[in-house]
Amino acid sequence: MSSVPNELFIPMKKENLNSEEIVRPRLSFWQEAWIRLRKNKLAMAGLFIILLMMIMAILGSVISPYSYSDQSLINGNQPPSGEHWFGTDELGRDVFSRIWFGARISLFIGVTAALIDFGIGVVYGGFSGYLGGRADNIMMRIVDILYGVPYLLVVILLMVVMGPGLLTIIVALSATGWLGMARIVRGQVLQLKNSEYVLAARIMGAKAGYIIRRHLLPNTLSIIIVQITFTVPTAIFAEAFLSFLGLGVQAPLASWGVMANDGLPTILSGHWWRLFFPAFFISITMLAFNVLGDGLQDAFDPKQRR
Amino acid sequence: MGKLLEVEDLHVTFQTHGGEVKAVRGVSLALSEGETLAIVGESGCGKSVTAKSIMRLVPEHIGKIKSGSIRLKGRELTTLTEQEMRKIRGKEISMIFQDAMTALNPTITIGEQIMEGIIRHQGISRREAREQAIEILTLVGIANPESRLKQYLHQFSGGMRQRIMIAIALVCKPAILIADEPTTALDVTIQAQIVDLFKQIQKKTGVSIIIITHDLGVVAKIADRVSVMYAGKVVESAPVREIFYNPQHPYTKGLLASMPRLDSDRNMPLTPIPGTPPDLFSPPAGCAFVARCDWALEVCRHHQPAASAFDDQHTVACWLQDPRAKTVKYTLRAATGL
Amino acid sequence: MLSFILRRFVAMIVTLWLIITVTFFLMHYVPGSPFDRDGQGMNETVQKNLMAHYNLDKPLLVQYGNYLKSLAEFDLGPSIKRPQDTVNSILARGFPVSFQLGIVSLIFAIVGGIALGVVAALRHNRLIDYAATVFAVIGIAVPNFVVATLLIKYFAVKWGLLPTATWGTWKHVILPAAALGAGPLAIITRMTRSNMLEVLNQDYIETARAKGLSPAAIVIKHALRNAILPVVTLLGAMVANVLTGSFVIEKIFAIPGMGKYFVDSINNRDYAVIMGTTVFYSALLIFMMFLVDIVYGIIDPRIKFHAKEG
């Protein structure tokens, strides 16, 4: 102790000391989520693949010299080559062009179904949670009952009744898809309505807009975003399933599901590219959305904060 | 040395995204047989981390005991293997946690949760274990222990749950019981019951207790000795009477001034300590309390004060204990108007 | 507990009734009569006779009443395209096959999924965790018809280890059951893993450690049970998954199960069979969900508590 110089034993000047200084940089909820997401390489790869798919869905037809529906019977069942990158099908249609056209259809179905689910789910769930009491009880009973209905059966039923087609698929997928979203939103709204921090914010005179921005959005939006990321692949999957049963979009339109179904018998005949490419793109898209969804879930989880 | 447990210069750090947080920065504690030691301090001062380090329960992948020594009856714990440590946990040292609701398993009967420790450490039959479980439940004041054994956590009230936690901790008759904020989650009336229970148990079993709390009322009732922690360090350590009647460290004084007392003037307002503790992400070079201290000196900002003996029972880590500070003290008080 | 079961039971009946009603009316609003698309140029008198034979000339509400009545007697109706068959006889033929396939794939999915999920969680952020996670994500991402084709291509065609298709011996079960169970297995793996990770972070696990229990004891006694409990709730969805999946798998493997008949009836537009099978499937699924709810109520002691309070 004696090594400490004597002249330091004078009252400290407080002005050059900032005790409230917080060393750790302060980040908003979204900033921190983004940082965590960016560290997750798998999720970032998923995001990258999704963006790439979307760009190719738009530009694929520009890059390829062939149209998705041009037939050329002499060029039927050609293996992948410099001319036809992914080969051709039995009618001589270019698989590469068809894949990207299919990407358009499949992504369109997935994204539209997810957005419709989101719209109905948020309104229904939001109202149910906001109204509370009896109205909430009845509205949720309805959801419970609908939830018990096996959704693929409903979809098949609607497809049979309305006839196959793009619109039918979307209607059929949305008919039951919104239930999950409605439950989640309602649960969040209810929890928030009763939460002490929202009460505290209101007591301190926070306006509705502030509460929505500060509390409702970070808490609810994150869960909704995750839910949407999982809805898109589910819809794409359901479309592939329906196409496989012959209930998908009709020729000459091509979705990945239709192409996989068409290509199924050819795997034994050796024309592997007919099945491989659509199956690969369905899988990789599913994979991308799923890992992104997982990554988002982790990134939004405040418990992951360190 | 008749010390049951000695902690010396313990350093514990946590790995975070932002870097290393130095949660415990050179803590020394000592516990004698049959004694109750209270560790007091604000949230985040490193009390719980110290306790968990003694049990070696700091999560391995993020937390780490950097240096220092923990000795139980002279036996070094920091170098034990996980397997050896398991024989100590629950048998030599037990721990109870703040919230019994989350610290007990909701899907296993209470009896099973009490008995599994006994079976593990004593290797006796289930029937004998059941006998002991009933005995310990009676000791902690739970009526109808036989039928209670078959019940689940949610069938008990808050105070009862805490009693069950204590029963689980005591069932193997450990030498040391570490209680991490055992009363914080309870109603005031239940708090008093639990504190009384601790005293009774100590009288009956002679167990040494380390109680971690920020409630000075609890400290006054139960503790023999008190260690005051601030920002990962012990700033003052003394017998309980000394802490309450002759506090030396400005932080201890601040804590006491912020607590209502029967003997103080009713019209005197309570004095809170202004400011907040420093971020242990990058602890200050000097004394951590410097920014909130009314008596701070220039030296406090640049140099860490070492613990010095105020008397043989009482240690303080503060530059004001330095003989050279005695002269400045007066002018400072005048300057601040105290 | 009893009122809980009763409430669930009423909900089950209401759901079922709703499905039956919606199915019935949807089917009857399909444009044209069920005999239109035969393509065999049926004359009008024959059509009329047929309509009368199946009571399709009666007012819709009477038909609806008749349908409900026959359902109550477990008569799911006739097949219009195959007059010698009824939905009941088709089910009697197809269901045992589908049931066998379904059970094998469910067991495969549940046992495999839980084991893989637990191991992954215990080795969190180690190689086996990544492997299990990747495997689970692939299982979710790859459509079961692709899995089935790959299995056939390698195990049956290339290596000749197992039969390519059809039904008969136990060897015939392996490939379709694996293809059918892959998706559910992946979902169960994922859920078990994340539950397990969450449970291992709970305070009571720390308490168990503080008692000096060994890691094995902690996992088996404290973590596993609580992590698997929620997996039970997945069972209903898994059954649904396996059931609808069987449409595809039975088609690929040419298995004479219920799914194949259902798909055939869709392709033939045999509305009576579609309707009957849909009702049967729905009843089966809803009953499974009901069972799952009850089972969950029994094995999780906390549920009783909530039921008492509510």
For this entry, give a set of tags.
heterotrimer; B: about 350 residues; alpha/beta; Rossmann fold; 2 domains; 8-stranded mixed sheet; 4-stranded antiparallel sheet; 13 helices; about 35% helix; globular; disordered C terminus; C: about 300 residues; mainly alpha; MetI-like fold; about 80% helix; flat
How is this structure best described in words?
The complex is a heterotrimer of chains A (306), B (338) and C (310). Helices cover 69% and strands 0% of the residues of chain A. Chain A contains eleven helices and no strands. Chain A has helices at 29-39, 41-63, 95-131, 133-147, 151-162, 166-193, 196-203, 208-244, 256-263, 266-269, 273-300. The model of chain A has no long low-confidence stretch (mean pLDDT 79). In chain B, strand 4 and strand 5 (75-76) form a beta hairpin. By secondary structure, chain C is mostly helical. Helices cover 78% and strands 0% of the residues of chain C. Chain C has twelve helices and no strands. Chain C has helices at residues 2-28, 44-53, 60-72, 87-122, 127-141, 144-158, 171-200, 203-210, 215-252, 258-268, 271-299, 301-309. Chains A and C meet through helix 4, helix 5, helix 8, helix 9 and helix 11 of A and helix 1, helix 5, helix 6, helix 9 and helix 10 of C.
